[in-house]
Every structure is written in structure tokens, then in C-alpha cells.
Amino acid sequence: MNKKTGWRKLSVAALALCALLALAACSKKENTEQSSNAPTESAAPAQPATPIDPATAATINGTVKFDGTAPKQSKIDMSQDPGCKGMNEAENVVVSGGDLANVFVYVKDGLGNRTFDVPKDPVVLDQQGCHYHPHVLGVMAGQTVQIKNDDPTTHNIHPTPKDNREWNESQPPSSPAIEKNFAREEIMLPVKCNQHPWMKMYINVVKSPFYAVTDKSGKYEIKGLPPGDYTIAFVQEKLGEQDQKVTVAAKDTKTVDQSFKAAAE
Q1: What single string gives the DSSP state of each residue in 134-176?
Q2: Beta-carbon count within 10 A of 231 CB
Q3: What does the alpha-carbon distance between residue 215 and residue 62 come to, in Å, rounded to a whole number?
């Protein structure tokens, strides 16, 4: 073997070694992102909360309506798992007497650079009857979401975010609650169960405590707002987002209603 041929073989071997190392690194990164394990996400260091004078705090409330003939909630076949008992219906559009439930309402704009304390108490997401409770959840960035399994079967919780870290984690019956948080603001972050394909819900991660989810009567209430001009967003998983501008003075209570029409086929 001459000297030139030897160098060529060494170069080929070096390139092959680099390719193997790069492949191993990619595989490790993918496994880290797709598996569970890390209990929390790293959030930015907390800034001191901006004081709000409670004597000036305002309230916004209202009712969200569905305009038109409400779609019939489809029945869900849960027979694949004997541990899933009872009736189950899709919750993508829940209307009762024209009132629209499960609409996430939040202050989208107008708070400026104000910062807020992250609540120490967790919000709870329960799995019962092979069903998520609640179907739409609000939480502040960095706040703990405590996930329970009250079913006699194993679930696999799998958020599929756009702006936060994706993870999935199995939770057998009677196992301890799983605690997670989300570092970045994200609206209508989908969550599914890999074991039961009909199980879906949405987590809404926001930077302020000014949010609510409409109840079965379509009602919501947001308290404690400082006086100001705000954009209020109403977000529904199938019907999209609608915004309204509102100005509140000190101690105001204003009613801001909203309605959604059926999505075009």
C-alpha cells in the first residue's frame, strides 16, 4: 500500500466514524424529547410581581353563545378497554340551550410589561371514566399541573405542543399523580392518551391570572383586573378565536358577551 492510498483509507474511516457519532447524537436527542421523565420544564427566572391596587380592581364577565343549530355530540365507543365504563360523548362542541361551554377566555393584550406571581397551588387534571376532567384547562406558565388517574386502567398522557416540550408518560391505576408544568405561553395545547384514542383535551398556558373557561351555561368571569384597555380573546377548539376590545375603569364590572357560528363545512 502506497502512502497516498493509506491516507485515503484513513480519511474514509474518519468520515464513517463522524457519521456514526452524529447518528448517535441525533438518536439521543430524539429519545430525550419524546420520552417523559423530566418532571418540569425550565422557566425563565421569576420577576417580582407588579402590584395591583385591589381597591381599583375591575371585573369582566359574560356569556358565550352558539349561533345556529348545535351539532349533535357523537357517541364514543369505548369497548376496546373493559376498564372504560359508562357513557362517553365527544366534547369538541358542547352546547346547551344555545350556551357554549369549554371556551377559553383570556386577556390577550393590554397588560403591558406587568408580571404576576405563579400560583403555588397546582391545577388538577383527572382521568376518570376514560375521560379528561376538565376538557379545557387554564394554567399559568410555570404553574404545576397535577395529573391523576382514577380509572382501573393504564393511561398514557401525551401533550403535543408547538412551543413547549413534548413528552408522554404512562400512568397505571392507583399510581401517584404526575406533576408537570409548561414554560411558555401556548393556547389550545392538545393533550391525548396513546392508549385510548378518543381521549383528548386542551391546556391553555398564559402569563397572567386573567383567564377563565366557560361553564355549561356559557358563563365566565375574570376578576382583579387593573383599570385599562384590553383585548379579550375567546378561543374554541373547533370554532376558532374571536376578539373583543374593552375598557375598564377602577371598580368597573363590565359584561362582554360573545357568540360563535357553526364552522363552515
Answers
A1: SSEEEEETT--EEEEE-SSS-EEEEE--SSS----EEE-TTPP
A2: 14
A3: 11
Strand 123-127 and strand 178-180: pairing? unpaired
Q: Half-sphere exposure of 179 toward its Cβ, with a 13 Å CA cutoff?
A: 9
Q: Is 16 helix (H, G, I), strand (E, B) or coil?
A: helix
Torsion-angle region of residue 7: left (phi > 0), alpha (psi -120 to 50) or beta? alpha
Q: Are 144 and 181 in contact (CB under 8 A)?
A: yes
- Global pTM reads 0.82
Nearest to 234, CA basis, from 259, 197, 251: 259
Model confidence pLDDT, tens digit, residues 56-99: 999 999 999 999 998 888 899 898 899 997 668 889 999 999 99
169-171: strand order across its sheet: 136-140, 200-206, 186-193, 155-159, 169-171
Segment 63-74, tens digit of pLDDT: 999 999 988 888
Nearest residue to 236 (alpha-carbon basis) of 75, 66, 60: 66
Cβ atoms 76, 198 nearer than 8 A: yes
Burial of 143 (0-12, 13-18, 19+ CB in 10 A): buried
Give CA angle at 140 (135, 141), nearest 5°: 115
